[in-house]
Amino acid sequence: MKARDVMVTPVLTVTGATSVRELAKLLTERRISGLPVVDDNGALIGIVSETDLLHRAETGTERQRKWWVHLFADSDTLARDFVKSHGTKVADIMSPFVITVSAVADLGHVSNVLDGNRIKRVPVMDSDTLVGIITRGDIVRALVASQLQHQPGQPDDVALQQRIIKGIAKHSWLNQTYLSVTVHDGKVEMSGFVASDAQHKALRIIVEEAGGRDIVDNVKIGVFRPSAA
After folding, report:
1. Could you report the per-residue pLDDT of 202-228, keeping only the tens digit for each?
2. DSSP state, 104?
C-alpha cells in the first residue's frame, strides 16, 4: 500500500498571511489538529498545529521562564518565544521545517516517518506539488480497511498447516526444530518450546494470520533457550 492510497485529498491549507484567530477557528470547526502552510503559488512553506497555539498571550498561557533563565538564555530564543506567543499571523508561529513523504512511498515508510519524528501528520508530495496529507488516524483507518478486505478464507487442514509452517520459517528468532504444528478438522495444535513470553505471543499471531482460529496451545515457555554458542 502506498501513501497515495490512504492520503486525504484535496488538502486543506492556510497561508502565512492567515491570522492566528482564523487558524484557531478553522482547527476548531474542522476538528483537525494541524495544517500545511502554502505561499500564494500553492508551494509548501511550513506546517502549523495546535501545539503552536498552546502558549498564547491571549489565553494567559504564554511561556513563563524563570528569572535566572533570562540571564543566560540566547536573546534570539527569547525573541522567538515572544513572537510565538504574540504573533498575529500564521507565518509568525508556523514551523518552516517540514518533513514530507512521496506519494509513492510505502505505507511502512510513512509510519516510520510519523513515529520516528514524533509527528501527527505528514504532507504528501508529487515532485514539488502538495497532493495530500496523512495523519496517524489515516494509518489506523487503512489497517481496518485492509483487515476487512483481506479476511483469509478457511483452508483445508494440509494447506493451513503449510501456511503456519511457512509463517514460522520466516522468523529466525523462532526455532522450528523445537516446534510442532498439526491441524485436524480445522483445529490447530501447537506443541514444543519457545524461549520467552514474547515469542509465544508472536507464535500465536503467526497461526492466527495463517487462518488458524481454533487453537490448542501446548507450547512450553522458557524451557528451551537457544545456546549462545
Report:
1. 999 999 888 888 888 888 888 655 555
2. T
CB 43 within 8 A of CB 143: no
Gap between the Cα atoms of 104 and 125, Å rounded: 9
Q: What is the pLDDT of residues 39-98, one digit of tens each?
A: 999 999 999 999 999 999 899 888 776 656 556 667 777 788 889 999 999 999 999 999
31 in a structural domain: yes
In a domain, 107, yes or no: yes
- Are residues 138 and 212 located together in one domain of the fold? no
Asked whether the whole model's pTM tops 0.70, one would answer no
| Packing angle of the helix pair 136-149, 107-116 (nearest 10 deg) | 150
State the pLDDT at residue 153.
Answer: 54
Q: Residue 14's pLDDT band (boundaries 50, 70, 90)?
A: very high
The answer to whether residues 34 and 111 belong to one domain is yes
Q: Is residue 228 part of a domain?
A: no
Domain that holds residue 121: 3-147
Looking up residue 73, the CATH number of its domain turns out to be 3.10.580.10
Listed in sequence order, the residues at least 6 apart from 164 whose beta carbon sits closer than 8 Å to its beta carbon are: 181, 183, 188, 206, 207, 210, 212
Quote the CA–CA distance of 121 and 33 in Å, as a whole number: 9
Contacts of 69 (CB under 8 A, 6+ apart): none
Contact 23, 14 (CB under 8 A): yes
**Residues 43 and 138 placed together within one structural domain of the fold:** yes
The answer to whether position 204 is within a domain reads yes
Instruction: Please tell me the chain's helix, strand, coil percentages from 3-state DSSP, rounded to the nearest 5.
Output: 40, 25, 35
